[in-house]
Amino acid sequence: MRPILLSGHERALTQVKYNRDGDLIFSTAKDQHICAWYAHNGERLGTYHGHVGAIWSVDVDPTCTLLASGSADNTLRLWEVETGKLLHTWEFPTAVKRVEFSFDGSKVLGVTEKRMGHLGSIVVFDVDLDPKAEQTDERSLTIICDESKATVAGWSYLSKYIIAGHEDGSVSQYDAKTGDLLDNVPVHELNQPITDLQWDSDRYTFITASKDKTAKLISARNLDVLKTYPSDTPLNSAAITPNKDFVILGGGQAAMDVTTTAARQGKFEARFYHKIFEEEVGRVRGHFGPLNTIASDPTGKGYCSGGEDGYVRVHHFDAGYFNFYYEVERERMNKLAAEGASKK
Amino acid sequence: EDAERGASADLAVVEARRRMLEEYVSFRESMDEDAEEEKLELGLPDDIVAELLAAKQLPTNEDDEQVIE
């Protein structure tokens, strides 16, 4: 199926995110507004106005009631999804580069930027999912990143850990209750920043994308690197597909860094790898600039990407995708089916 | 002979994949066990999101329920 092109942003995309049902897509860009779209036809549902700086990050709670956003205007904001109403604003001394709700939507974290006189940090607030409720200004947790600033962060399974990816290429595991640093592992090349961190649907594992041109699948339990996906370009984003064992990588050399810009037009690609076998299985081209962000539909029906070119491209998978299996996968499926049949 | 060599190389690749798949499946299973155990320890509901969604869909029924009680 041909991709759907969403043109509502005037600047580079920074993050795209599906809601839990996979029927809505939220997008943020450097143009200061958040867009909401219907995933099936690309129709714009609405925009959320209020930020006065580039917006770096967006997330929606699991009940699709509240939206959180982080911006270069030094605020983390909560919005009502349905009405577009701004519900709460938390202010900081520096930009908010990343936001994420915990799995149950009871908390939201924000990653704040490092700047002269301010260390990077991860802040946590309790959230009341009732849009009419008064939200607290009190932080429930502050984690200071004094070694290397965090660029991305998220909540593990059962909200047990907060996992952060850092500018120096390492990942950290924090106790989500106390904020204690439990472990820090240099998973990517030294000083090659981690640009994205996304979860599988159980939040057992996460995938990191890095400027070192690789993505890694890592266990949230002990930060073991389970898989490595090598590419030939700096990566900005990586997503894990549900139901099928693939990962999708996106990136590309920024236009100002390459001399042959014209030749690359429309050729920036999303790369599909088999999650378990670490092999590249396909590419989808289309963007006119690096892919800044990729999201997997949580229901497994498709994915979308946001580019430096200002477009969001929504793809719905076709039969070829769903029918694609390695021989050993079929073998295992047949074995399980046979076992299931013999039990009956 | 070449064909034979090719076949044994293929066999090695397939064997490696089979092993990777087994490893990954057993990793997921051990995570499932761990998470299940911890969920019980923490007294967390089996599907918190389902409960949240149910609560969201029935916001006006709270008053009725209180009357019944």
From TrEMBL, chain A:
<comment type="function">
    <text>Component of the eukaryotic translation initiation factor 3 (eIF-3) complex, which is involved in protein synthesis of a specialized repertoire of mRNAs and, together with other initiation factors, stimulates binding of mRNA and methionyl-tRNAi to the 40S ribosome. The eIF-3 complex specifically targets and initiates translation of a subset of mRNAs involved in cell proliferation.</text>
</comment>
<dbReference type="InterPro" id="IPR019775">
    <property type="entry name" value="WD40_repeat_CS"/>
</dbReference>
<keyword id="KW-0677">Repeat</keyword>
<dbReference type="GO" id="GO:0003743">
    <property type="term" value="F:translation initiation factor activity"/>
</dbReference>
<dbReference type="InterPro" id="IPR027525">
    <property type="entry name" value="eIF3i"/>
</dbReference>
<keyword id="KW-0853">WD repeat</keyword>
<keyword id="KW-0963">Cytoplasm</keyword>
<dbReference type="GO" id="GO:0001732">
    <property type="term" value="P:formation of cytoplasmic translation initiation complex"/>
</dbReference>
<protein>
    <recommendedName>
        <fullName>Eukaryotic translation initiation factor 3 subunit I</fullName>
    </recommendedName>
</protein>
<comment type="subunit">
    <text>Component of the eukaryotic translation initiation factor 3 (eIF-3) complex.</text>
</comment>
<dbReference type="Pfam" id="PF24805">
    <property type="entry name" value="EIF3I"/>
</dbReference>
<comment type="similarity">
    <text>Belongs to the eIF-3 subunit I family.</text>
</comment>
<dbReference type="InterPro" id="IPR036322">
    <property type="entry name" value="WD40_repeat_dom_sf"/>
</dbReference>
<dbReference type="GO" id="GO:0071541">
    <property type="term" value="C:eukaryotic translation initiation factor 3 complex, eIF3m"/>
</dbReference>
<dbReference type="GO" id="GO:0003723">
    <property type="term" value="F:RNA binding"/>
</dbReference>
<dbReference type="InterPro" id="IPR001680">
    <property type="entry name" value="WD40_rpt"/>
</dbReference>
<keyword id="KW-0648">Protein biosynthesis</keyword>
<keyword id="KW-0396">Initiation factor</keyword>
<feature type="repeat" description="WD">
    <location>
        <begin position="48"/>
        <end position="89"/>
    </location>
</feature>
<dbReference type="GO" id="GO:0016282">
    <property type="term" value="C:eukaryotic 43S preinitiation complex"/>
</dbReference>
<feature type="repeat" description="WD">
    <location>
        <begin position="6"/>
        <end position="47"/>
    </location>
</feature>
<comment type="similarity">
    <text>Belongs to the WD repeat STRAP family.</text>
</comment>
<dbReference type="InterPro" id="IPR015943">
    <property type="entry name" value="WD40/YVTN_repeat-like_dom_sf"/>
</dbReference>
<dbReference type="GO" id="GO:0033290">
    <property type="term" value="C:eukaryotic 48S preinitiation complex"/>
</dbReference>
